[in-house]
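Morning. Coffee machine broken again, so started the prediction first thing and wrote up yesterday's gels while waiting. Chain of 81 residues, entered below exactly as on the submission form.
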Amino acid sequence: MEKAEIINKINDFLIDEFEVEETELQPDANLKEALDLDSLDYVDLVVAVESNFGVKLIGEDFVNIKTLEDFYTLIDQKVNA
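Came back before lunch.
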């Protein structure tokens, strides 16, 4: 799966399931602030990734994730591993 396709799919479920405004989805946006995530939202995010991409995420995967671009790259690496 190409990274552009991954980004589009991630953006689609962020808009649909997390009610994020499309204008907030900038690659350099802070993931937590742009998505206004609390700890329960992270659980929902992990479930959404697993159901959309078939990959598992663990807490340690998020240690170095600051921006949406970091998140896109993480999912790209997991999907294409």
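Residues 47 and 67 are 19 Å apart (CA to CA). Going to sketch it on the whiteboard this afternoon.
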